[in-house]
Amino acid sequence: MASETKNNKNSLTSKPLTSGLLNELKRLAGASEINDFNIALDIDRLPPEEQETARLFGRIFNRYKAATEYDLMKYRLASDALGIAHWDMDVVDGDPVNPNNRFIWSPEFRQMIGFTDEKDFPNILSSWSDRLPPDEKNRVLGAFEAHLNDFTGKTPFNIEYRLMVKSGEIRHFHAFGETLRDKNGAPYNRQCQAAGNPGQYSQ
Fold first, then answer.
1. Average pLDDT, stretch 3-11?
2. What is the domain partition of the chain in residue ranges?
3. What is the pLDDT of residues 118-142, one digit of tens each?
4. Following CA atoms 26, 32, 37, 41 in sequence, which dihedral angle do they give, to the nearest 10 degrees?
């Protein structure tokens, strides 16, 4: 009897996903690649024999989502208390100057410098770099490039600089960050930065 139960359990866990559920999972995976996490498994589109499996996947996804949202809430509370805002850079093929590198400016960072959304402050490097004063631009971008291109990871990115906010006022900021790297030291996937509260450094 025990042997029979074990065999039945193995047959259930080894059963391959059918095309309907597999397509639903592919749809979710595709959405996640463009940072769209507001979709869910559409169980009603699946045949009855797949719906229970889909519900189990949904329970797992919802638990992960709840845990992530809780961590995000703690991060935002800490960021607000410290007066910092974050932005990320996705590094393509370990190449810091690849034109396809994608910048993600957080809502907090945009708000800090007077902007609202991606329409008035797009997710590209020049949104930020073009607002550096001419006498600051080479120094700041040079420090950023030196940090990324040091495959030993020993060159920090920790710098104070001036930036023109949306109102036209020049304010002082403190930026710092770390880079995730692969085993060869090439920038790995995402570059994280943080900017200090300009209210402390306004001029």
1. 44
2. 2-78, 84-200
3. 999 999 888 999 999 999 999 998 9
4. 10
- pLDDT for the residue numbered 6: 45
47 token code pair: 């045949």
Name residue 76's amino acid: R
Q: Using DSSP, state whether 36 is helix, strand or coil.
A: coil
Strand ranges across the sheet with 102-105: 102-105, 85-91, 187-195, 170-181, 157-164
Which pTM value belongs to this model? 0.58
Q: Is 48 helix (H, G, I), strand (E, B) or coil?
A: helix
Its CATH class, for the domain covering 84-200, is: alpha beta
DSSP state, 16?
A: P
Cα–Cα distance for residue pair 63/66, rounded to 1 Å: 5
SS3 state at 120: coil
